[in-house]
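Shift notes (night). Ran Ion channel while the centrifuge was going.
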Amino acid sequence: MLLNLLLGLATTAVCLLLQSLLVVAALRYFVRREYRVYSTFLRAEGVVIGLMLILIFASLAQIAVWALLFYLLGEFETLEQAFYHSGVNFATLGYGDIVMSEKHRLLGPLEAINGVLMIGVSTGALSRALTEVVKGRVLPVRDEKPSER
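Came back to this:
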C-alpha cells in the first residue's frame, strides 16, 4: 500500500508539473491573442476554443502519464486499455467495466483526486478567458446609449 501511495503521489507531482506548464502556455496563448477578444464574436470564440484545446491536451497528457504507469505495473495488456481506464479515473466517471488488481487499486482513487484538482485548474484558466470575452463583448454594449445600438 505504501508503494502505491508513493507511486501515486509521484505521478501526481509529474502531472502537476505538466498541468502548470500547459496552463502557462495556454494563458500566454490567450494574452498574445487577447486583442481578438475585443474585435468580433467569432474571433473571440476562436481564441477561447484554442485555449480550451490546449487545456484538453493537458488533461490527455496527464491521462497518458497515469496510463503508462498502469501499463508498466502490468495492470493492462495494452496501452490502449490502460489509457481508457486512466481516462475514466481522471474524469471521475467510474464506469467499473475495467478494473485494476487489488495490488494496485489504490492508484485509481489517487488518479481521480489528481483529475479533479487538475480539471479545476483548467476551469480556472478557461473562466479567466471567458471573463475577458464577456468584458470585451457584453460590457461595451451596456455602456452604449440606447440610440447608439
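The helical segments are 2-32, 34-37, 41-72, 79-90, 107-137, 139-143. Residues 71 and 82 are 6 Å apart (CA to CA).
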